[in-house]
Amino acid sequence: MKKRSKLDIGWLRIGAVVLFASGLASSKASATDDIVRDGEYNFLAAQHGDVWAEQDKSIDAKLAEYREQNGGKPPNILYILIDDVSFGQMGNRAMNYVTGIDTQHVNKLAQEGMSLMRMYTEPSCTPTRTAFLTGRHPVRAGVEEVKVALVGEGLASEEVTLPEVLKQAGYNTSHVGKWHQGDIEQSYPHNQGFDWAAFPVHQQVQLSLMTREAMQANNMLGFHPSGQSNEFHIDQRFRPYGLVTGLEGEAGGTAKEIDLQPGEEWTQAHYERMNERYQAQVLEQLENLSQKDDPFFLQYWPLYPLNFAYPEQAISRNGGFHADKLQLLDTWIGELLAKVDELGLREDTVVMLMADNGLMYHYEGTSGLSQLIYRGGKTQHLEGGVRTDAFIRWPGVIEAGSAAGDIVHVSDMFTTFARIANATDYIPRDRVIDGVDQTALLLEGEGNSRRDYVYVYEGPVLRSIVKQEFKMHMPAPGVPGAAAPVFNILRDPREENPQIGNALWSGASFQDMAKRHALTIEKHPHLPLGKGKPYEGIENLRPESIETREVFDSWH
Ligand SMILES: [Ca+2]
Questions:
Q1: How many Å is the Cα radius of gyration of the chain?
Q2: How far is the CA of 215 from the centre of ligand 1 (A)?
Q3: What was the pLDDT predicted at 21?
Q4: What are phi and psi of 341, to 5 degrees?
């Protein structure tokens, strides 16, 4: 029999502290498959598993029919993940007028496919990307937060990524752009399932902020030596230095740094060239992949719109340094989608575009992006941090111009793409997979999601739980669920006015959800983050990178 914890036991720091002692009931296998699931999914599957299993038969028939008319192959997948744009910013002509940022190509993509109106991500870059790649809440893989300089950590080789799953089903795989999964060899994309990858090992704090130009724009303070003289500095290693920039690598090979000579200073011009290079490379990859017999998975993760120096001439009415690059990126997306058409790939390619988290609100006011209907942004568990635009197109299969109000989490795309690729058998069965198969939602339309919940973490800490239209901000230890802040996000999208009328009944239900989640963690503990020596596997490390690594090693 299930042992009940006392009602006030569970407010929660999952991961760092194990909350629920006692061996509790084992989580029940889902009615639909043998993948290890979170307790909350199993709770839903116990109510709907039979219906889902029946529906899966017709979904399987549809997917088989598609493959038959496509020469026996599942579709190509082109997945575009852009950085730091809040829900409502793209895909919407009215908002284009309101904000002065024209996203006409994304708007067109939205019209040609399904708009996922309630896509949840993690609150920042690294965790969202881990969730997509592994189908798991990042904490389960030991991934907690964004890292800027050397850490000797990254996505562990033991994690099974989507490209690794798809490769087993015969896909060719390429990655272009931001990666941000660590600075150790095992975490690099060409060691995590991609046949070929071009990527910066770190992210935009280094690439677009640690420059003279960003200092002169007053957006990076105290970093560049030209900005200040101070004879009292003793530590010459306080400011990051010698960081590796853009790499390219092939599966099984070493990586090579591109476009930076020993002793050369990284500049805004390098950053712009890097972005232009990635755009050219994604077009080139698309062309190369289209010439092969097997289907492809092409991942394009641009660094834009993040940018911190004003251009010579703005192209948007808005003119903010993020807004302007968002509009530029929109034209690049238009160019990529035109290439899809030109190569005759439109009918056979699933195209998805979304953002990884809400805006970088820290630069709100000058970046040109602003908090829209939802409050908050990057790094926060508020809706503004974890709700993003998401559009998916698959002509003839996903209804053009459709929309879905159902809850989807970014980890669901791992499981869903695997299903679409006929690769579900290669999803690992020895660890928790949070990603829910949303193929029914895509093929049968809204109302067919298999989740109505999301656990929202900030780093290792569970900060809120979303269920249906309600959201509980996890209360301080000792505060009973019935007194916790619970919001109805349809009525209060900015999460400003918790209503006791919401909490008095739902507090107990949210507490049960927290327990179901915690019990799953107890049964399937988090796996460790990958550890290693930073910058291994790079064949042309500059002397300054070797030095920064030696200094790092000297005190670790
Ligand atoms: Ca981001």
A1: 23
A2: 21
A3: 33
A4: -65, -45
Which residue has 């992006």 as its token pair?
369
* Distance from C-alpha of 393 to C-alpha of 115, rounded to nearest angstrom: 9
Comparing CA positions, the residue from 329, 334, 343 lying closest to residue 285 is: 343
How close is the Cα of 355 to the center of ligand 1, in Å? 7
Which residue matches tokens 């993690």?
122
Instruction: State the average pLDDT over residues 274-280.
Output: 98
If you measure from the C-alpha of residue 358 to the centroid of ligand 1, how many angstroms do you get, rounded to a whole number? Answer: 7
Paired residues of 172 in beta bridges: 296
Residue 46 domain-assigned (yes or no) = no
Q: Note the pLDDT tens digit of each residue in 320-336.
A: 999 999 999 999 999 99
Give the Cα-Cα-Cα angle 337, 341, 344 (nearest 5 degrees).
Answer: 140
Q: Kindly give the residue spans of alpha helices, DSSP state H, lying in 210-267.
A: 212-216
For residue 396, CA distances in Å to 169, 334, 400, 441 come to 23, 21, 8, 15
Ligand 1 is an ion; its neighbours by CB within 5 Å are 83-84, 125, 356-357
Task: Say if CB 502 and CB 488 are below 8 A apart.
Answer: yes
Tell me, yes or no, whether 332 lies in a domain: yes
Name the residue range of residue 317's domain. Answer: 51-221+243-456+527-555
Mean pLDDT confidence for 350-377: 97
What is the 29 CA–ligand 1 centroid distance (Å)?
A: 34
Q: Ligand 1: distance of its center to the CA of 356 in Å?
A: 5
Q: What's the CA-to-centroid distance between 127 and ligand 1, angstroms?
A: 9
Taking Cα atoms as reference points, which of 398, 434, 439, 445 lies closest to residue 418? 439
Distance from Cα 78 to the centre of ligand 1, integer Å: 19
6 pLDDT band (50/70/90 cuts)? very low
- Domain membership of residue 518 (yes or no) is no
Residues 6+ apart with CB under 8 A from 476: 11
Distance 301 CA to ligand 1 centre (A): 10
Residue 261 is assigned to a structural domain of this protein: yes
Cα 270 to averaged position of ligand 1 atoms, centre (Å):
20
Residues 325, 101 contacting (CB under 8 angstroms): no
Mean local confidence (pLDDT), 524-536: 97
Q: How far is the CA of 24 from the centre of ligand 1 (A)?
A: 37
Read off the CATH number of the domain in which 184 is found: 3.40.720.10
- For residue 200, what are the β-bridge partners? 246
Is 387:41 a contact under the CB 8 Å cutoff? no
Number of domains, the chain: 1
Please tell me the distance from the alpha carbon of residue 34 to that of residue 51, in angstroms, as a whole number: 17
